[in-house]
Amino acid sequence: MDSMLIIDEVRLTPILISDPPLLNVQGVHQPYTPRLIVEVITRAGTTGLGETYGDRVYLDLARPLADALPGHPVTDVNALFELAGVGRPAAGERNAGASSSPPHAPVTEAGVDAAGLRGVRTADKLRLSVVSAFETACLDALGKTLGLPVHALLGGKVRDSVEYSAYLFHRWAAHPGDGPTDDWGAALDPAGVVAQARRFDRLHGFRSFKLKGGVFPPEQEIATIRALAEAFPGRPLRLDPNGAWSVDTSLAVAHELRDVLEYLEDPASGTDAMAEIAARTDVPLATNMCVTTFEEIPEAFAEDAVRIVLCDHHYWGGLHRTRELAALCRTYGIGLSMHSNTHLGISLAAMTQVAATLPELHHACDTHYPWQTEDVVTPRPVFRAGRIPVSDAPGLGVQLDRRALAALHRRWLTADVALRDRDDTATILSTHPTWTPPHW
Amino acid sequence: MDSMLIIDEVRLTPILISDPPLLNVQGVHQPYTPRLIVEVITRAGTTGLGETYGDRVYLDLARPLADALPGHPVTDVNALFELAGVGRPAAGERNAGASSSPPHAPVTEAGVDAAGLRGVRTADKLRLSVVSAFETACLDALGKTLGLPVHALLGGKVRDSVEYSAYLFHRWAAHPGDGPTDDWGAALDPAGVVAQARRFDRLHGFRSFKLKGGVFPPEQEIATIRALAEAFPGRPLRLDPNGAWSVDTSLAVAHELRDVLEYLEDPASGTDAMAEIAARTDVPLATNMCVTTFEEIPEAFAEDAVRIVLCDHHYWGGLHRTRELAALCRTYGIGLSMHSNTHLGISLAAMTQVAATLPELHHACDTHYPWQTEDVVTPRPVFRAGRIPVSDAPGLGVQLDRRALAALHRRWLTADVALRDRDDTATILSTHPTWTPPHW
User: Fold this and answer.
1) Does domain B155-395 fall into CATH 3.40.50.2000?
2) Which chain A residues in 375-414 lie under 8 Å from chain B, judged by CB atoms?
């Protein structure tokens, strides 16, 4: 193996990035949210970039993996799972499927993970999210070394641009107390959300609109979707209450919105509830909560619980695993789209590269990216007509902005330590002490 | 995209290779069997190699694909399926899943394909077998261009050698009439098969033994497996009658051999029969007949019809698709091994490269290769302790023997045209006119 491909060093840089006060079923986004930037550096000095969740549980898993990698070639991405201990019980965990909590990360309520809304937290879910950043960084380094885009390392692109959807949020105008500010204003009723959608449409040209729901009573969110349908006739609309509804509520909303929804995303929590809803409505159900690992697939597919899986390469363990998930969905006749949580340009590039290789991606992908005012890549990616062009430059096709990285890391070092773990619930409770997780 | 990676030319060379008179449920192997060698040549003059079935139906599909490829980069293997028309109805076919027969290739009996024993023949199965050779050739060319082994293009090897099993056949000492000869002698009873196994063990060091069954009455084949178990205590044994048995016969054989079989392969034909058997025996069932495409997976997995899928990169559409199949098997808790039909060193190298990347491959792979006295690669691969080392040389790590290729192509040009389509049934009927397909 060419020594140009051997990993010499892995650098981990935890950062805190500005985030607007976006509302969801768990509370409100913190003013700053942690991310982890992974740099894999080869002996020839080529640097590959990866990005993932930055909460301390992830950092604790990333450090030993970073220590284990030097000496391995960047081509060895299949080996990352074993190196990261995927499939092995964690300390205090009876088996890989058990739901005990790793340090720093108590499960805040049954079935919901504070950091990611991806069902019960397991050690493997955390490990896979860490592996995803290392795999992306290895592929970026490999592509840069070979002069090939990442999509070519995954069998080649089948499209030249990838479509994304607008990600609409109910939000406050500003964080209470200190924090980053912006000029988007509040969106706490149908008119506010429609105004937000119009601005997204104008700025980025998105064709599809997704509303993060589960924040206001279903009647209000139904009215918001109706208002969007009126403002943007014929455009694909999605509503995602993150499992905040009962089966009956979900069915009532599906019935009300059956003529305008492209799909309804995670209306209720858990595979059984989703299956019950799916059996009683023609509105397609999508998920990034009840199917977030390969282990969860057989039951969900057997129960016909979902029609569309919203994949997320962070959840599934990287870009190769995303392609494997696509093969599973293709085999079982399940649709595919992409989920997104707060992320920067490295992950957007990774999403775009792998999405470009998937013929069966027939829905616009989610992305939080337009909400991010800071990034560690330069120049920042630009959406045109809601799409990101698929880069043919070597690797992911993004350039690290070291000054920005250093500044965001300095924030991580100096800011309140509590910000190092994202906790939307604690954040809302700090100013709204009577807030309770919504359920309708 | 670097012009070094652009395909300049694709060469197709049909050949006829010597094959011994091996017996199976469909008759006897022809003295010569067709294979197709695919060479993908880049503008920089690098040649990638692929190999697949060579019957005329495959050639007819390969030619337009070869014409379509120049100008594409060798990285674009995801695009091969669309280019080959996978998923499109064939002329005269009502839909992609229908069972109508393409020219030259009548379905000889319900559920059995004369060329490959892979269930009902469909246009897509043929196309996927053709795509597999083109994909392998593209990966070989890409690896040679980049200086990387094919396994590194698939995420890297997780083992340094791949285990194969001895493939034991009932056979005649010689073909009736003209044809290649060898000194293996006949194997038409338990003693003959044990002698063959001893020679395989001595020559190649195989640990596992598979017997191609469905040739003699089950009692005789049970006795043969018993004789092998006595001669090689504790070694993994497999029996494959290619669906020649009824459910009751299959259950009786499974019961008789329950203490010595690693698995029983395709005892009966069709997913329903396999499921019925599987429900009533603890002997694991394997298949390369009822699950040979992604479309066949959901029903077979839902019915618990098989415990092990014998993958074959020719059937499944190449090395990337083989990895996708592995992901499906991993997800559903199904074991994985590899099927083999008469093939040469290019396909053996391709099997070894992809097998090296699959952590979940826990059974020795099948290979017909030791029966082949001719090859188009040089030097010929050598089994040690039943294993093939995983080459780290660029591409597949094999070298084309152009003199051998030319000679075998000359045979294809000059021999009886009937040999251009493999037909084990016609071959046995030519000397045993009263032969009928066995069923017990």
Assistant:
1) no
2) 392
